[in-house]
């Protein structure tokens, strides 16, 4: 299992506006590490650098001890599964949405991923409950169920690294708790970076990094951070 480290990473999208300022943190192999902070702090930017949508100005990002600038983009991205905040689904079956873009998965593999994400009973349903052939019918998936489809799609890739980018932010708090417990289960043996703007969302993380304006300003467990406040 690969760990992830950011070492003194500086970055901006435009050269006259720096976003990350010499940022360092570590997600040891198999751990769950959280990044919390207000909107605009640079959390999603960290995810984009890890996935190599952009390269840092300075510093290094390592996966499994290796600078990601030195590995092929394909092998890097193969190792990372992203669960985004909002999931846009095709109006085709849940099964189709889970398998989309994956390399001809077997029916058993798709069913296993669906089961792990607790969406298996919906596998033949249409996300929008609408079939253009026969007119309206069936179930319309809720926001939480859609996130379960996204989780299943990510699990089908079986990535050793999970990036949860505000994966529950768009949900009501009850649904958020349900999805969090699923995410906790599926991330158990993976290196996980969980991005959130609320501390309560990632209370179970092994380590929480609090971000502000492109810097990590505090680190600790949930209990430690609450005690300091
Ligand atoms: P967070 O995820 O913590 O809300 P982001 O990483 O999305 O923060 O954004 C950090 C800063 O980078 C913000 O000021 C935002 O406006 C800016 N930013 C984000 N994406 C881009 C982009 N593609 N081009 C230019 N600036 C961007
Ligand atoms: P695959 O590469 O096999 O499709 P993923 O589903 O994990 O596996 O692919 C990465 C995903 O990252 C894309 O499907 C896309 O939805 C998502 N993505 C694209 N741009 C961004 C972004 N700026 N931030 C976070 N996630 C993104």
In short:
This is ATP-binding cassette domain-containing protein. It is found in: Cell membrane. With 229 residues, this protein is α/β, with parallel strands linked by helices.
H/E element order: EEEHEEHEHHEEHEHEEEH
Enumerate the distinct ligands.
Answer: adenosine-5'-diphosphate
* Morphology: globular
* Beta-strand proportion: 25-35%
Domain ABC transporter: 4-229
Organism: Aurantiacibacter rhizosphaerae
Subcellular location: Cell membrane
GO molecular function: ABC-type transporter activity; ATP binding; ATP hydrolysis activity
Please render the helix and strand layout as text:
Blueprint: E1 4-11, E2 20-27, E3 32-36, H1 43-50, E4 58-63, E5 66-67, H2 73-78, E6 80-83, H3 94-99, H4 107-116, E7 130-131, E8 135-136, H5 143-156, E9 161-165, H6 173-186, E10 191-196, E11 207-212, E12 215-220, H7 222-228
Parallel strand pairs: 3-10, 3-11, 6-9, 9-10
Antiparallel strand pairs: 1-2, 1-4, 4-5, 7-8, 11-12
Helix pairs in contact: 4-5, 5-6
This protein binds adenosine-5'-diphosphate (2 copies).
Subcellular location: Cell membrane
Organism: Aurantiacibacter rhizosphaerae
Protein name: ATP-binding cassette domain-containing protein
